[in-house]
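User: Round two. Same drill as before: sequence, then structure, for each protein.

Assistant: Same drill it is. First protein:
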Amino acid sequence: MTKKELRKRLLERRSELSDDDVAEQSLRIQRKVIALKKFQSAKIVALYSDIRKEVATGEIFVVFLRRDKVLLYPRVLKNRKQLIFAQVKSREDLKEGNWGIMEPRIGLKEFSPQQIDLMFIPGVGFDKEGRRLGYGQGYYDRIAGRLQKDCIKIALAFDFQVVEEIPDSSRDIRVEKIITEKRVIEIKNREFKEVLVN
């Protein structure tokens, strides 16, 4: 199956989720994230605004701001096909941007990708080797080489979004951890350890 076909199939399946299912499963996923040691110790975290029935990130947003850490959100520079990351301190710092995604308003303090300790990376699908199927624009793939070596990259996904294999490209960004409502998958050196959780 090609990337395009797999993307279409997974997006269709996600669109069939009820709002209640999205909310319930997202809450389970976010609670697992908040309990992670790396989440608690990270100083600068890049999150994203969920859209079109992605795993919700609102609970992570609230908890992280309460812990008085630096929370970044991406803003799309469409003309340059790149993301920049700006600090968000409240919901009022977000405004609707490209593709209807909430992103930091202009004028907020910006950070370079090299400063990020922990990055949540959106996607349509993932596999157990950490490969990611994005939306086809390559924004996150282009920043992969600019992240610090120790930056932990985490995917939040509904369990059906973890598939056997994602067609690979050497330019694609990979994740080290996938958190679903059913399990946490840790990937090291393209080998995975799976922990099933309630």
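Second protein:
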Amino acid sequence: MSRPYQGTPMRYLIFLAGFLFGWTTITRADFVLKQTVENFGQRQGVTIKLKGSKCRIDTSSDTSALIDPQMGTVILLHQPKMFMKVSSEQLSAQAEAIKKMLSASANPNENADFQADGKSDNISGFATEQYTGKVAGLPVTLDVTRNFSKYRELLTQLYAVQDAPGLSLFHSLSIPPEKYPGLPVRTTVELLGQKITTTLDSVEETVLPEQDFVIPPDYHELRANSQPQSSPQSSPQ
């Protein structure tokens, strides 16, 4: 028996906000990035597809987010084949909630430039150097590589996607492009006594089809307290 998707909007807004607060890159070319996110004892694989100013984030939980500066933000729920449009008001409210949560444990206006601490490593095949600093009052550690020629282009376009409706408030929760000393291969943020780590596993320049960035035609819109039609399980689009 199907049941109403009560509480669904907040659940997936939190999902989206988490990736916006972490490291995300947008570029003018087509790229596929695979990442592993570790937080609160859990590991999650994330695939980010980039085409121009459009972005698609696929998680290992049969959920995707489509972000388009012109059209806005949409959450895809693959198993029930449904989609949910996220309003700019909802995104702005989520950003404000995150800022309020941060203010309880840190000064959200405190930022410290990144400084090299002399440590080096090899992560995902990249030679990395470690830097530490603060963003919105939170301690942040970056393991970066200088051996990626397009890293400045990638990081500059981060702000472009955050100009999508309702996302501008996330600028204050992100690391400005000019603050990065290289391409972040691993980012560690300390939040409420826990470490949230995002590791870049691979990056590939390719050609992506336009249909990866649009709502599939057989998906139906999910509205608050609506009941999805029962359907056989299918693979994510």
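The CA atoms of residues 211 and 237 lie 9 Å apart.

User: Perfect.
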